[in-house]
Amino acid sequence: MKILVTGHKGYIGNKLFSKLINLGHDVIGIDLKEGKDIQHCLPEGRFDFVFHLAALPSVQYSVENPSYTMKQNVLSSSVLLEWCVKNKIKRMIFSSSAAALEPKSPYGLQKKMTEMECKLFSGLYSLDTVCLRYYNVYSEDQGFTGPYSTVISHWMNSVKNRDALFMDGDGEQTRDFIHLDDVIEANIFCMDSEVNFHGKVLDVGTGHEISLKQIKFYIDQNNAVSWLHRPQRVGDIKKSKSNPSELIKMGWYPKVSIKEGIKRCFKKGVTK
Question: Model pTM?
Answer without folding.
Answer: 0.91
